[in-house]
Automatic annotation (TrEMBL):
GO terms for cellular component: plasma membrane. GO terms for biological process: cell wall organization; response to antibiotic. Keywords: Signal. Residues 322-576 form the Penicillin-binding protein transpeptidase domain. This is Penicillin-binding protein. PROSITE patterns: PROKAR_LIPOPROTEIN. Residues 287-298 have a biased composition (Low complexity). One of its GO terms (molecular function) is penicillin binding. It comes from Mycolicibacterium madagascariense.
Length: 598
């Protein structure tokens, strides 16, 4: 055998195939080394161990090595003769854990004859020269877990914190009642029955009942320790910096944060102890690349506005939602839901509701664009109007006679808007709605959203229903807030949640004619000063539109208020509010402190 001759993995496979020798038959030392190398490259601990003279010990060590290196690790091993002794070989290891993550080293192996075959003499050092009995390998992705998620001003929104994972063993279910009593101050949904339900839904020996923040855990740690079958394990978790912060806008942020720290992660391979009280303790670091600096994940949310929005919706017992967006940037400033809304899911972004009279901004914009009217155009506002056998009433059938369009808008004349909608082409409302962002498909990193649906109206009855925000028209609170922000911006906004992670929009942004935006803003200001939203006339600069939308059997309705004040555009919904008054009240509770700084 020629000194220094290398046996590559491919050459080894060809050799085995050509000679008809299996990996378990090694008529020469060279075959034993090759069989061992090939089996390691296949991640086959049983075959690699079978090529040694101590199958049991080798199998355990090799299995532990692959477990510690992780399922995504790949290894190639090349054997070559070491010196003049063909019974000694150098094993060149090359581990790959992903792009730019490679660990290489050499180990020495010797072969011993067993009958007609040769086997690699087992010693942990054939896997690594520093490996000893009672040790194994551990690969680790080293991440910057302390990277925060911040609001738009850099204030911490979510941070890495210690939590206590409270588990209960199945054999001690009699501890469920006292455990629930201890935990209810932190989560009122935890009961003995809920814990029993957890066990009924799994075959696991233990269930995780709750994860407690560190300060909560400190108050009950001693009592928990006294309950049979209860264990507490501390671990890290990404939590809101303020325990009271709650928003469907933050639900997707942990995944984006994980992507950020994964992208900048370092990595290391360490030998660790497998025995005794030091199990898992590092004994030797084989390689280490520290994580790169990871900038904070900065969102567009405003912590103060989010808190004010939460306080505002919390005063309403029915499901209530408020979404606020910056017209100048498209950044989502706040998204709040009360507990009743939370029970229905993330309805702020994915709920679908008839918008009622708030949609009259779109109908009016379409009428202005079509040249049918201006704010000063005299328009009839009778108590009722019948179009194609569909009778549309004003609320309580109020009758203003003939008034300027601006007055009909500010007093929310259904009859005026129905008559204008009847004169519009079938696609006029869908086209104008998309210009305001309703019906646009947005792909926003960190969020799942819908804006709404405005189909073509092919009959007069459909036109008049859609024109007053009923019929087949639906929006989400997010979609209506997008429409208000687009009006404030003068073009379709592109809403975002995380700075530096752009939103895809289909169709893309387009300008709204200035004549439309100027006229609508003036009419919305009139709605607050002298129309249906005079309860908010004390809020300087506020323009808005109220809305009431029937649903179901038409005996109940949703209440809306949407508007713009400075760089805050918003939409407020009270599900089943039966009038716009509750939504107006919630909006005022949000806007007054938001705009005054109190």
């Amino acid at each position: 055998m020629t000194r220094g001759r290398s046996l590559s993995l491919l050459a080894t496979v060809l050799l085995v195939a050509a000679t008809g020798c299996s990996l378990f038959s090694s008529p020469s030392p060279r075959d034993a080394f090759s069989a061992f190398a090939v089996a390691l490259a296949r991640r086959d601990p049983a075959a690699a161990a079978a090529a040694t003279d101590d199958r049991d010990a080798a199998s355990a060590a090799i299995s532990s090595m692959f477990d510690g290196m992780g399922k995504d690790a790949w290894v190639t091993v090349t054997s070559s003769q070491s010196g003049d002794d063909d019974k000694t070989a150098k094993l060149a290891y090359s581990w790959t854990f992903g792009a730019g993550k490679t660990l290489t080293y050499d180990a020495t192996a010797t072969a011993q004859q067993s009958g007609d075959d040769w086997r690699v003499h087992w010693d942990p050092t054939v896997l690594h020269p520093k490996l000893r009995p009672g040790m194994t390998f551990q690969y680790s992705d080293d991440r910057n877990f302390l990277t925060p998620v911040t609001d738009r001003d850099g204030q911490p929104l979510m941070t890495w914190q210690t939590v206590g994972v409270v588990d209960l063993a199945r054999e001690h279910q009699d501890s469920a009642a006292p455990l629930a009593a201890l935990l209810q101050p932190f989560d009122q949904t935890i009961t003995a029955d809920s814990i029993a339900g957890q066990f009924a839904g799994t075959k696991d020996d233990t269930v995780t009942v709750v994860k407690l923040r560190a300060d909560d855990l400190a108050g009950v740690r001693d009592q928990l320790a006294q309950l049979p079958g209860v264990t507490v394990v501390e671990q890290g978790a990404l939590l809101t910096a303020d325990r009271d912060l709650s928003s469907p806008a933050i639900d997707g942020l942990p995944a984006l944060w994980q992507q950020a720290i994964d992208a900048s992660a370092g990595w290391s391979v360490t030998l660790v102890s497998t025995e005794g009280s030091d199990k898992g303790a590092p004994t030797e670091q084989l390689t280490s690349t520290p994580p790169r600096d990871t900038p904070p994940v900065r969102t567009t949310l405003d912590t103060r506005l989010q808190s004010l929005a939460q306080q505002a919706v919390a005063t309403e017992s029915r499901p209530a939602v408020l979404v606020a967006i910056s017209p100048s940037t498209g950044g989502i400033l706040a998204a709040a839901q009360n507990a009743a809304a939370d029970a229905q899911g993330p309805i702020a972004f994915s709920g679908s509701y008839p918008p009622g009279s708030t949609f009259k901004t779109i109908t009016t914009a379409a009428a202005i664009q079509a040249g049918l009217a201006t704010p000063d155009t005299p328009e009839p506002c009778p108590g009722t109007v019948t179009i194609e056998n569909r009778t549309i009433p004003n609320e309580d059938e109020f009758d203003l006679g003939t008034v300027p369009l601006s007055t009909a808008f500010s007093h929310s004349c259904n009859t005026t808007m129905a008559a204008l909608a009847d004169r519009l082409p079938a696609a006029a409302l869908p086209n104008m709605a998309r210009l305001f962002g309703i019906g646009v498909d947005y792909v926003i990193p960190g969020l799942t959203t819908i804006t709404g649906r405005v189909p073509n109206a092919d009959t007069p009855a459909q036109k008049v229903e859609n024109g007053i925000g009923q019929g087949t028209v639906t929006v989400s609170p997010f979609g209506l807030a997008v429409a208000e922000a687009s009006l404030g911006r003068g073009r379709t906004i592109t809403p975002t949640l995380v700075v530096g992670q752009p939103t895809a929009a289909n169709p893309p942004s387009a300008p709204i004619p200035q004549a439309i935006t100027d006229d609508l803003r003036a009419m919305m200001l009139l709605t607050v000063s002298d129309g249906t939203a005079t309860a908010l006339s004390d809020v300087p600069g506020l323009g808005g539109k109220t809305g009431t939308a029937e649903f179901g059997d038409n005996t109940h309705s949703h209440g809306w208020f949407a508007g713009i004040d400075g760089d805050i555009a918003f939409a407020t919904l009270v599900v089943g509010g039966d009038s716009s008054t509750p939504a107006v009240t919630v909006s005022g509770d949000f806007l007054r402190p938001a705009l005054t700084g109190n």
